[in-house]
Amino acid sequence: HTPMYFFLSVLAFMDSCFSTVDTPKLLENFLTSSQYISFAGCVAQMALMTLHGIAECLLLAIMAYDRFVAICHPLLYHTIMSQRLCFQMVAAIYTASIANSALLTGYIFKLPYCGPNVINHYFCDIPPVLKLACADTAEVETIIFSSSALIFSFTITIILVSYAYVLVTICRMHSPEAQSKALSTCTSHLTIVCLWYGTIIFMYAQPSSLNSMEQNKFVSVFYTVINPILNPLIYSLRN
């Protein structure tokens, strides 16, 4: 019931939702000849993928802050990271994620789509859907790029600042055992952060002109299927 394990349960829930949005449809496409998705289904799939992707970015930043408080202020840890604050943080994550997802999905599907209707991807991701629009997408792409860059810079700043303080605190510890214990509590989180942000930044924090659809499909498998599988394994083995 400590904050660390509360956030881990939320991460597990997000990973389950994230996988459930696109993997069943992917398996259906493999097993049947039909590779059809309705317009409403495409909207829902994109909205839910965006929602849980943003939520996971924000949650990883909060988990970094949790590690900062645990290592840098251990005596005040349970006072600062109270159960009420943890619930409020998770509620804020979902509020911000829903608002951002609704905004981006709304802008994308306001564009006219007059054919062809073949998405060059295995789910309704933002870049391949935008390529089907019959209007200029420069404004929408700017909004998407700005939103992605804002979320990534905000969350990465929290993670980097938190771990900078953690590193300084660990270096000041006189006991090698204490240093090892402190580092071991951060290793799992850092591994997941590197895997998640490495693929996400590659996908969404660059202009669409530099994107290759075939390359994007390959990278997408990592953050939609492989990462959610690896996350519980990484944390379970470490703990």
UniProtKB/TrEMBL annotation:
<feature type="transmembrane region" description="Helical">
    <location>
        <begin position="85"/>
        <end position="109"/>
    </location>
</feature>
<keyword id="KW-0716">Sensory transduction</keyword>
<feature type="transmembrane region" description="Helical">
    <location>
        <begin position="218"/>
        <end position="237"/>
    </location>
</feature>
<dbReference type="Pfam" id="PF13853">
    <property type="entry name" value="7tm_4"/>
</dbReference>
<dbReference type="InterPro" id="IPR000276">
    <property type="entry name" value="GPCR_Rhodpsn"/>
</dbReference>
<keyword id="KW-0732">Signal</keyword>
<keyword id="KW-0472">Membrane</keyword>
<comment type="function">
    <text>Putative odorant or sperm cell receptor.</text>
</comment>
<comment type="similarity">
    <text>Belongs to the G-protein coupled receptor 1 family.</text>
</comment>
<feature type="transmembrane region" description="Helical">
    <location>
        <begin position="182"/>
        <end position="206"/>
    </location>
</feature>
<protein>
    <recommendedName>
        <fullName>Olfactory receptor</fullName>
    </recommendedName>
</protein>
<keyword id="KW-1133">Transmembrane helix</keyword>
<dbReference type="GO" id="GO:0005886">
    <property type="term" value="C:plasma membrane"/>
</dbReference>
<feature type="signal peptide">
    <location>
        <begin position="1"/>
        <end position="19"/>
    </location>
</feature>
<keyword id="KW-0297">G-protein coupled receptor</keyword>
<dbReference type="InterPro" id="IPR000725">
    <property type="entry name" value="Olfact_rcpt"/>
</dbReference>
<feature type="transmembrane region" description="Helical">
    <location>
        <begin position="149"/>
        <end position="170"/>
    </location>
</feature>
<keyword id="KW-0812">Transmembrane</keyword>
<feature type="transmembrane region" description="Helical">
    <location>
        <begin position="43"/>
        <end position="65"/>
    </location>
</feature>
<keyword id="KW-0552">Olfaction</keyword>
<keyword id="KW-1003">Cell membrane</keyword>
<dbReference type="GO" id="GO:0004984">
    <property type="term" value="F:olfactory receptor activity"/>
</dbReference>
<keyword id="KW-0807">Transducer</keyword>
<feature type="domain" description="G-protein coupled receptors family 1 profile">
    <location>
        <begin position="1"/>
        <end position="235"/>
    </location>
</feature>
<dbReference type="InterPro" id="IPR017452">
    <property type="entry name" value="GPCR_Rhodpsn_7TM"/>
</dbReference>
<keyword id="KW-0675">Receptor</keyword>
<dbReference type="GO" id="GO:0004930">
    <property type="term" value="F:G protein-coupled receptor activity"/>
</dbReference>
